Amino acid sequence: MPLKPDVWVGYLCTAISGICFGSNFVPVKWFEKQIGDGIFFQWVFCSAVWFCGFVVYWCRDFPPFQPFVLLGGFLWCTGNILTVPIIRCIGLSLGMLLWSLLNLIMGWLSGSLGWFNLKPEKVEIPWLNILGGLLAMASGIFFALISKNNPETEKHIQEFDHDANSFKSDDLLNHNGDFIDRLQPLQKRIVGVIMSVIAGLLYGTSFVPVQNVIDNCPKCSQSQIDYVFSHFCGIYISSTFYMLLYCLIMKNTPVIPVEIAFPAFLSGLMWSLAMICWFIANTALELIIAYPLVTVLPSIIASAWGIFAFKEISGRRNFFFFGLGFLFTFASIICTVISKGNAQ
């Protein structure tokens, strides 16, 4: 099996991963009004994920398939299924803030404390690594405070006001009277927060099965890239299951916005590249370093798209929060990188 990638490869993959995660929804930006309830979008998206996983599997000369790693794909897909209800309940900004923070905390603590039967990872300057993680969390708060300009797009899945009550769920799902519509505002907030926490925990533990195999199976590959296909199969199988379940719930009349198919596939390709690079970064840098970096970089990239390409963000207040978020992210990256030192 291949040796551990060089550290510089890990940082390069971290940068690529952050850019692609922050940009993977750009292909569907012009079709946001046709995205429907998001179930069909996710299934096409995950079809692209499986395709990329198979390409990696082939390029790696078909390493042994690890059934246990399917669990990681299931955890990620299940967390992702919750995002549309979360957005309907509490809005995108608050929802993303909560699930991103839990994602970061779970991934970071799993690597540093050795949770879930993982081997604890070491850094040369632990307090600086902790500071980097805290700065990353703070940067997420500042990015969440940035609001969009265009009120029309608040009706759709990609653009939301910070006030969850302003979100028009009928426009998103094209049907009325489901359980979320019947909730009172306080109930929506409670349900949205609970689901955000669950999604964050699921996202943050999605790498655990891969790392568990690496840490506890001496004969297995020590490179996470060899587990990409197993992980991506878990995502696709879970997504297909949820798609079929959705069809049953909708009595075989699912919302299928065909206009979104190709953009969703492109979005899935970009996400897959980001995830593959994250797998490589985890091997080269370890979870305790790669996780904080990869989870904070997309906020900068996504905000930059909003400012320079789509003109969604303007105004002194928004630029102030963007600047603070950028500074905290930059400080987090510096602290996290320096904290590793020469630790093995």
| Beta strands, count | 0
Helix content: 55-70%
Question: How many discrete structural domains?
Answer: 1
**Rg from alpha-carbon coordinates:** 20 Å
Q: Beta-sheet strand percentage?
A: under 5%
Q: What is the succession of H and E elements? A: HHHHHHHHHHHHH
Give the helices and strands, then pairings.
Elements: H1 7-23, H2 39-59, H3 70-81, H4 83-90, H5 92-113, H6 126-144, H7 169-173, H8 185-204, H9 208-216, H10 228-249, H11 261-285, H12 287-309, H13 316-340
Would you mind describing this structure in some detail?
The protein is mainly alpha-helical and 344 residues long. The chain is 66% helix and 0% strand. The chain contains 13 helices and no strands. Helix 5 (92-113) packs parallel to helix 8 (185-204). It starts with 6 loop residues before the first helix and ends with a helix.
Describe the structure concisely.
This protein is mainly alpha-helical and 344 residues long. Helices cover 66% and strands 0% of the residues. It has one domain.
Give a quick set of tags describing it.
13 helices, 344 residues, mainly alpha, globular
